[in-house]
Amino acid sequence: MTLTDAQQLGYINAQAADGRVNVELETDDGMVLNMGPQHPATHGTLRLVARLDGEQVTSADVMCGYMHRGYEKLCEVRSYPQVTTLVNRIDWLGSFANEVPFILAAEQLMEVEAPPRAQWIRTLLFELSRIANVSLFIGDLALQLGAQTPAFYAFRDREFVLNQIESVTGGRFHPNFDRIGGLKDDLPKGWIAETKAAMVRLRAFCDEMEGLVYGNEIFQSRTRGVGIIPAAVAQSYGLSGANLRGSGVDWDLRRDANVGLVYDQLDWKVWTHPDGDSYSRCWVRLQEVREATTIVDQICDGLPSGAIMAKVPRIIKVPAGEAYIATENPLGQMGYYVVSKGDTGPFRVKIRSASFNNISIAPWLLRGVYVPDIITILASLYFILGDIDR
Amino acid sequence: MAEDTATASAEAPEIVIDERREELRAVFVAHLGEAVLDSVIKPGDGLWIRVATDAWAEAGRVAQGKADCKYFDFLSAIDWLPSPYGRYEDSALDVPFPPPMPERSAAVPGYAGGESRFQVLASVAKTGTDLRVLLKVDVPDDDPRLATWIRSYSGAAWHERETHEMFGISFDGNADLRNLYLPSAFEGHPLRKEFPLLARVVKPWPGIIDVEPMPGEDDEPSEGEGTE
User: Which residues on B lie below 8 Å from A250 (Cβ)?
Assistant: First the structure.
């Protein structure tokens, strides 16, 4: 299967043809509007081809793959500890949360359980990832609607969370901190107090955004009643996270299928909104950031002492078996189906990422909407390109 | 105290019955009958059901309707053939290219068994609970083709596209099986085991250099037995 020069040339040509960005005008069938892959209103390189009738979308097609890195194939030639480095790059705004379900799946197959302190710190970092991720969404959302200031506020306040993540893990974006059997390190001195101060700051940010963005008349008129997803449709497309709860489905894996994290020992609430429109999805996310700050506070108060690593062999070999673990990540449910053959690396890893399902509803949802609403709807679905393409 | 717990656990062997998952399985058995070929329950964790190839579409309808698993989680496939390229450090560095393909009989399926090289795997769930069904189905070796699930779950459309692109499995009834990630002229199916990972073929993985034993440890790290 070596490629000849002619094949390679054909491949490059095909790639160029697929990626050609243009606006075509057609006489009989309306106009084709090509948004992206380098369009200011898209996060990353998502390309949207919308067929228009006047201002109205008759059909929309999502083209992804500009960031396909083939992680499922790469996982097959990596050892278990190496996989976390890869999966860190899936949802790059809340990287730590990507590692957790994979590590939990490997732990389940090995029948290893992390010590309580490690579980608590995992949950803590998991929630900090959520705050780091979703707080940026709130600023970005306003940016997509034409307001610049909230984006700067979001970056400013997200910095406090990133600093906390950095001082534990050493990495602002890609912590690679979770280990099979526990964590790489313990919390640094004085970290708890700093984190609680940061959470106060983040709560103030949420209040500020609630007034500045969510209470804004323009924001409301552009999101309320736009892009409605009924609960049944949301389930059939496998939407998750705030997209599902924004449609009134009361399901949160943190509460309902908690594995390996300590959510069952904390006092918190799952937010839902019955409307199913763009506004409700954004609103649920805001509440979830606020809820996450209180979860972090509770963990800071209740953190048990003890070891942070269970006893695991130096060379990790996972017994043969299959495991599927999904967790409620910032973007929604993320799961890893891990097939092991008793080797040092997985035989097959299926990565179930939240954004892939979340964006797969776009062709259905965008049919019949007006062009400016495409932007708000896509923004409210909230995807990360790395999470779609993997 | 310690003795008590030891004897107690010895007396009660670990036959844990997961009633909720047993019930869920019973729904599938009642509506699919003979088409449920095999099933596995890991108590408190998961339920795997393998159905016959020609009952795949029906299995989707039962899952969505009678079993009340309205939530579509994912659909993908597994290639059970061992990779002819081996795995990083234990693969021979001078493998002839292309390497000899492993025998078809080397493909050993996982939970709930199977007879084919490829299996399609789908997960559906019941919202508000931790109940989830992992449905497996054999895909014929000579003609990898299966019925579509899009009539039961709209979300299956993209997952089937991805599976078609990555494994070369066709889904009858899904009209839109264009490539999702790769250019349309791409040849081959990347997640099949015989598809080479070119980066690894041209340059062997250097990871082996790092696996030197720590000072003061035995020189047999490949056993994986020694704990710290």
Answer: 127-128
What is the tens place of the pLDDT at every residue in A315-328?
788 888 899 999 99
Looking at residue B90, what is its pLDDT?
53
What is d(CA B29, CA B76) in angstroms, rounded to the nearest whole number?
A: 23
Compute the distance between CA of residue A380 and CA of residue A214 in angstroms, rounded to an integer: 13
User: Does B216 reside within a domain?
Assistant: no
Chain B partners of A342 at a C-beta cutoff of 8 Å? none
Domain total in chain B: 1
In a domain, B173, yes or no: yes
Question: Per DSSP, which regions of chain A are E strands?
Answer: 24-25, 31-35, 47-53, 56-63, 178-179, 182-183, 321-329, 332-340, 348-352
**Per-residue pLDDT reduced to its tens digit, B6-56:** 444 445 556 677 788 888 888 888 888 888 888 888 887 888 998 988 889
Q: Is A225 on the interface with B (CB under 8 A)?
A: no
Is residue B150 one of the residues assigned to a domain? yes
Question: For chain A, which domains are there?
Answer: 79-357 (1.10.645.10)
Distance CA A3, CA A273 (A): 53
For B180, the closest of A65, A79, A343 (CB atoms) is A65
**B85: in domain:** yes
Alpha carbon of B2: minimum distance to chain A alpha carbons (Å): 20
Q: What confidence category does residue B226 fall into, taking pLDDT thresholds of 50, 70 and 90?
A: very low
State whether A236 and B87 contact (CB < 8 Å). no
Residue B213: DSSP 8-state: P
Residues of the domain holding B183: 15-205
Q: Is B109 on the interface with A (CB under 8 A)?
A: no
Q: Which of B184, B135, B58, B125 is nearest to A252 (CA)?
A: B125
Whether B158 sits inside 8 A of A236 (CB atoms) is no
Residues from chain B contacting residue A323 (CB–CB below 8 Å): 45-46
pTM, whole model, 2 decimals? 0.82
Closest to A153 (Cα-Cα) out of A101, A207, A191, A192: A207
ipTM of the complex: 0.82
pLDDT band at A102 (very low <50, low <70, confident <90, very high): very high
CATH number, domain of B35, equals 3.30.460.80
